Amino acid sequence: MPITTTRRRLLAGSAAAFALPAFVRAQGAVKPRLTVISQWSAGSDGAAITALGKKFEEKGGVWQHSPVPGFTTEMMNKLRAQIIAGDPPACSQLKGPEIAAWSKIAPTVDLDALVSAAGYEKVVAPDLAKLHKPAGKWIALPLQIYSTNMLFLSKRAMDKAKADKIPVTWADFNELAEKMKAGGVPYPVANGGTRPDDGQKFEAALAGISPAVYRAAIMNLDEKALQAAEIKAAFAQVRKIADWMDPNVGAQHFSTNLKRFVEADMGMMIMGGWAQGVLRNAGFKFEDFTIVPGPSDNGKPVFLLNADAFIFWQRKEADLQAGQTLMAQLVMDPAIQTMYSQITGSIPVRTDVDLSGEGWSDGQRTTAAALKDAIASNQAVLSLAHNMAQENGMAAAMIDVITEFVKNKTIKPEQAATRLAEAVESAR
C-alpha cells in the first residue's frame, strides 16, 4: 500500500539529519553506474526503458534496472524497503506530489546545476516544474507527458453515426454520443470500469467545463471552489457519460475493450495518450481511430497533465554519482525524449521538440500542440486520477466519491458534489 503519513513522519526523522547535498560530479575516469527501480517491465513502457538503458550503456555506463511488475504500490514497497535498509537506488520512478512526500524520507540530489546547464526549466510546463522542485531545488526530472483527457474516436462508429464533425465542447460530445446511439453504436462511450477510468471521466468533465475551477477545487482544495456550480455540472456530465457506457463492464483494464471500440461496439474513449501505444501494439492501425483534445467549453485546449519522472537519491559511491549525472543528462536530452515518446505514444516534456518529422503520429502532434496552447492560456492542469494533483491518500478519498457516483445512479449530482467536499475535509 502507499506509504502513509504516519510512516512518512517516522521515516522522515532519519532523513532530516542530512541536508540535501549539492549534485556532485564524479571526478576522474570512474565508469558511470546506475541502479534504477521502476514498474516498467513489459509492453511499450518496458521497451522504452530498455532502450533508455541501451543509450546509457552506449555512453559507457553500467545499467542496473530492477523492474517491479504490477501496480505502483509494489514498486513503492520495494523502494521503501531499500531506503529503510540504507540502500536506496541511485534513481527511481516517482511522480506528482509523491516526489515531495518521499523526499522527506531520504536525502535527494540537488540537480539545479544540471537543469540550468540544459536550459530544461525554460521548456517545461510551470505546474509540472514545481512538482519536481518541491523545496525550490530540482530533485527529480520528468521524462514524458500524457494528457489524460484525450478523446479517441472510433472511425467505424463515426461512419455509423454519419458524423464528420469533431466534438469541441461537451455539448458537441453529447450530440455525437446521441448520433452514435441512434446510428447503431450500442455504447457510445468506452469504459474499463476501474477507478482511474472513473477519475479520468470526472476530471475531463470538470476541466473541460472550467479549468479555473478545476485548479482551485482539485489542485488547491479551495473550500469555496469545491462548492461551485461547476462541480455539480461536472457530475451531471459524468452521469451522461456513464449512461452511454456498457453497465456490464467492471474493473477491467481499458485495453480489454479496444477491439470493441475499433469495431464500433463502443464509440468514443476518454483516455490518456498512452492508449495510442496500446492500440498500435495490439495491431490496430491509425486508420481505425482519431485522437483529438478532450472537450473544452471555452473552445481552448485543456490539458490534464500526467508525467512520468525519475527522482535521484543521494549516494556516496563515485560510480553511482557519475551514473546520476549521465542519467540526468540523458533524461533531459531532446533526442532521448523523442526516442522514448515514439515508443510509448507519449509526448516529450520539452515543449521545444519538433514533432513534424517521421516517427510521430498525428495524435501526438495534436497533443503537443494542445499542451503549448494550454500552457499559453493557463489551461494546463494536473491529473487527479493519476496522482498528479494530490497525494495518494487525498486522491483516493476523492475518487471514492466519483466511483460511487458512477456506479450508483440513485446519487444526484448535487449530493455527489457535497460528498466530494466532505471527503476532502476528512482527508486533509
From TrEMBL:
Q: Name one Pfam family in it.
A: SBP_bac_8
Its Gene Ontology cellular component terms are: periplasmic space
**Entry's transmembrane regions:** none
Write the signal peptide boundaries: 1-26
Could you confirm whether the keyword Mitochondrion appears in this record? no
Where can this protein be found? Periplasm
Which keywords appear in this protein's UniProt record, sorted alphabetically?
Periplasm, Signal, Transport
Q: InterPro entries per the record?
A: Bact_solute-bd_prot1, SBP
The keyword Signal belongs to this UniProt entry's keyword annotation: yes
PANTHER family found in the cross-reference section = ARABINOSE-BINDING PROTEIN-RELATED (PTHR43649), OSMOPROTECTIVE COMPOUNDS-BINDING PROTEIN GGTB (PTHR43649:SF29)
Family indicated by similarity = Belongs to the bacterial solute-binding protein 1 family.
Annotated protein name in UniProt: ABC transporter substrate-binding protein
